[in-house]
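Predict the assembly for these two chains.
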Amino acid sequence: MKVLIIEDEAELAKSMVSYLSGQSYLCELAVDYHQAMEKIGSYQYDCILLDLMLPGGSGMMILDELKAQQKEDGVIIISAKNSLEDKIKGLELGADDYLAKPFHLSELSARMFSVIRRKNFANSNVITQGNLKVDLLAKSVEVSGETVLLTKKEFDLLVFFIGNKNKVISKSALAEHLSGDLADMLDNHDFIYAHIKNLKKKLSESGSGNYLKTLYGNGYKWEV
Amino acid sequence: MTKLLDKPLKAFTIYALIVLLCSIPAYFLIIDLIWVYQVNEHNQVVSRTTKKNISALKLDDAGLDSAIRLWNRLQPETNIRPAGSLKADSTYNVYRHDADQHIGTYDRFQGLVTYFELNGKPYSLTVESNVEESYETIIAIALITIVFFIILLVGFIRLNKRISKKLWKPFYQTLDQIKTFDLNSHKAIDFEENNIAEFEELNSSINKLIRSNVAVFHQQKEFTENASHELQTPLAIMQSKLDLLMQDPSLTSDQSYIIEELNYAMSRVSRINKNLLLLAKIENQQFADLEEIRITDMIGEILELLSNLFEAKTIHFRCDSEPSLKGNRMLVEIMLNNLLMNALRHTDADAEVDILLSDSELIISNKGLAALDADRLFRRFSVASSQTPGSGLGLSIVKEICNRYQWTVRYEFADHHHRFIIRF
C-alpha cells in the first residue's frame, strides 16, 4: 500500500518511514508544500500523512487541492497544534483523522489501518488470520466460525494489535489508545493488563492461535 | 480612614472657627472704641454748649447758684459743681445702677469732667452719657459670629459636596475602572476624557502602565504557548525514536525496561507540555464558543469511561437537580475529568468517591487522612512530586476554567474527607 508522508521534520519523517516500511507500506516523502502538491498531482496514495505547518504553504491548502481533484486518498492530519478548530476544519475539508504530536508510531499505524480499511471497505473489511476472522464494520470476531463476544475495549485492542502486526507496542501507547486524554492522569497503566488478559483468554478459549505475545512484561506484540 | 475630600473641609472649618473667634474681641474693641469716642465727642459738645449758655446768662452769684441747682435737677446727666481749682479735662467710665432702672441692672456711663470759671469762681461740669455695656456688646458680637460660623460651616459642607462631586468625579471614575480591571479579561481600560490636567495626566499614566503590563502579560502567555508548541515536534521525534528502538529484536530485557521507563517519562513530559499549552490557550481565550451543557449527562459519560479504569472503586453519584451550564464543552469536560480523576486517583483501592450535584454546586468528595494545603493546591506545579505522577497542572486547569466562567472552586477537608466544591 502506498503512503505519502508530508512532513518537514526530517527525523520524524524518517521514524515514520522506518516503522511503516516494516508494515507492508510503501512510503514516499514530501518535505514541503510544493513537493507535496507535485506528488499528489501525479500519484494515487492509499493514505496521506499530512503535517499542517509546512514550508511553502499550509496543509489545509493541500486538503483543498485533494478535495478539488476529487481524490479518494485517506488523509490523516498530524499537527503540533492540537487545536479543535484545526481538527474540525481539517475533517470538514475531507481529512479522515487527526493526530496530535507527540504520538506513538503504533497509534499512527493503527489509525492508518482503520482509515485505509474504511476507504476500501469493499474488499478489506474482514481480516482473516488463521482461523480468526475480524469484521471491522460489524465489529465482530469469529474463531473457526464461532462468534467470540468481546467488549468494546477488547475489540479496540484487537484492531490496534492487528494494525501493528509484528511490532512491539509499549504499555503507554496502549494506555493512551484506550483512555485517550485520561491516560495523562493515570498513576499506572495497570488497567490495560485486565483488558489484555481477558482478550487473550477469550481468544485462546475459542481456539484461536496465540498471536498476542507479552514481552518482558513491558510491551506486547501481535505476531503473525 | 478620612476621605480625601473631608480633609480640607476639616481644615477650613477649624481655620474659620479660629478666625471668627479672634474676630470677637477685635470687633468688640473696635465697636467699644467707636462708642466711647463718639460718646466723648457728644459729651464735649454738650459741655461746651452748657458752658457757653451758662456764661451767657451773666447771672450774679445767687442767681447762678439757683440756676445751677435747677440745671442739675433738670439735667441729671450733667452736673455743675463748684470746684477747688481749675484742672485739665478728664474722662471716666463707670458702671452703676441707674436711679430710674430696676435694681440689679448695671448701666455703663462715659463721663467728661471739665472745669470753667464763672464770676471768678472755678466750677466743674460733669457730663455723663449712657454707653452700651461691654458684656452686652460681646454677647451680641459672639451671637452674630456664631450664626455666621454656622452659615459658613453649612456652606462649606454643601459647597464641598457639590464641588467635590463634580471636581473629583473623573478621579472616582478612574478609581472604579482600576478596581474592576482584570488583567485576564483582555480588556483595556477606556478612561473618559475630562478637562482637568491632573486627572488627564493620571489617566494617561495609568493607561501607559496598564498597557505595558498587558503587553508583558501577553508576551508571557504567548511565550508559554509558543514554547509548548515548539516542544511538540522534538517530543514527537523522541517518542517516535523510542517506538523504533523498541522494535529492535536484539534488545535485552534490561534495555527494554529502560525504554519503558523512558516511555513513561516521555508521556509525563508530553502531558505537562500539553497541559501547559491548554492553560495558555484558556488564558488566551481560545475556547470562545459557548453551548448549553447538561452537566448530569456529561458526568454520566465520564463516569462510564472512568469505571473501566477504576473497577475496584465505588463511585456514588447523586444529583438533586439537573442543572445545565453555559460553557465550552471541551473545557467543562476537562474540568470534570480532572476533578474526578483526582478524586479517584487519591482514593484507596476499595474506597468510595461521592459526587453530589445540585442546582448551584458540584461537590466531589473522597476519603483522606489529612487536609491538603488549600492555598497551594490550585497553583501550578505546586503539588507535583514523584509520588503524584500527574502533571501538577490538573487543578490549575480546573481553576482557570472556573475563572473563565465566573464559577468558584474551593477545597475543604472535613470528617476525613477531601471535598472539592464548584459553585456555578
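The first strand of chain B starts at residue 78 and ends at 82. Chain B touches chain A through 50 residues (CB under 8 Å).
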